[in-house]
Design a protein that fits this description.
This protein has about 350 residues and is of the alpha/beta class. The strands form three sheets. The chain has a seven-stranded mixed sheet with strand order 2-8-7-6-5-3-4, with helices on both faces. A four-stranded antiparallel sheet has the order 9-10-13-12, with helices on one face. A two-stranded parallel ribbon has the order 1-11. Helix 6 runs parallel beside helix 7 and helix 10 runs parallel beside helix 12. The longest helix is centred in the C-terminal third of the chain and has 23 residues. It is globular and about 60 Å long. The two termini are about 30 Å apart. The mean pLDDT is about 95. The structure holds pyridoxal-5'-phosphate. The site of pyridoxal-5'-phosphate has 12 residues, from helix 4. InterPro entries: Aminotransferase_I/II_large (IPR004839), CobD (IPR005860), NHTrfase_class1_PyrdxlP-BS (IPR004838), PyrdxlP-dep_Trfase (IPR015424), PyrdxlP-dep_Trfase_major (IPR015421), PyrdxlP-dep_Trfase_small (IPR015422). It catalyses: O-phospho-L-threonine + H(+) = (R)-1-aminopropan-2-yl phosphate + CO2. It comes from Yokenella regensburgei.
Length: about 350
Amino acid sequence: MSEHGGNVVEMGLQAGIDPALLLDFSANINPLGLPESVKSLIVNNLQVIEHYPDVEYRHLHQAIARANQCDYDQVIAGNGETELIYGLVRALAPRLAMLLVPGFAEYRRALQQQGCQIIDYALSEQDGFQVTTSLLDAVRTHRPDCLFIATPNNPTGLMPDAGLLNQLATLCETLQIALIVDEAFIDFLPSGSGLAARLKTSRYLYLLRSLTKFFAIPGLRLGYLLSGHTELITLMKNTREPWTINALSALVGQHLLTDERYIQASHEYIARQRDELWRRLDGFPSLVVWKSAVNFIFFRCLRHNLNLQQALLQHHILIRHCANFPGLDGSCYRVAVRTEEQNKKLINALTDVLQEG
Ligand SMILES: Cc1ncc(COP(=O)(O)O)c(C=O)c1O
């Protein structure tokens, strides 16, 4: 089974289906696709690839700092957020880390590469997989060097309570624990400014952002990290390999964050499609569906002898099986919210596979 969503090549090969024929619901990419502004920027500036990009990425870092109302030296961009997860873990060199499960796989891989001991904090199904105040108790008890939390979380699509998140940030500041908040999907929340306002006063807060999901550029790659711990940001800039972000990606990143028309259109479209897809999924008696704040939906299939991912592949539809997320069993799945027409295809295929609805 693929470690991540979006692995259409591997899944197609395994199922004996041409990957080009698969409709991919396993990667959580904005269904509106690449913004028009990005397309024309790339087409009109292809010549930038004839030169090395500015190794300091000055314009890109300035644009990110401006968009987030923070200082230039609080920002580092990366070749996707993933580069920064690994770079941050290397720079922090934690010996004991806490992870919330289920959660995104790359935190664990990055920590394991550094030989870091990991404590899992299980989000319980009884609490609807939501973060509760017991996380604060666990942090006080274990005193890890760092804690990763994704807001909203992947694969559940749930956003923790804002008050609780602020309490967690205050606690970590007091106990001098690095709080690494993965805001990869925060742009999908219309009011989502996350914890950025706390950066001015915090030295233990790290905000990871991805541009690949919201702006539909997973193949181009771009993400960034914000932190008030400017010495650490400088260390990361000085110790990483040069030119990890290609020149086209750096150029696109300077303009993306101000494309208000695309941002607004995405919020409206995704909210409409998500609500409709949720309603249709919830209509299947054998599916238990969680409410989502973002562009993907998490559910459990009560037919335990049915592998929904395999069954839907026969309809040339790829969904994310969540069996390899620690803390989940083989009955959980995640689907992206796609276009109206594509979502209908998913519902029709599910109707056929489940013979109900
Ligand atoms: C929660 C979360 N964080 C980070 C990433 C990585 O994002 P990027 O494509 O910017 O490396 C992903 C990708 O799926 C994700 O789900």
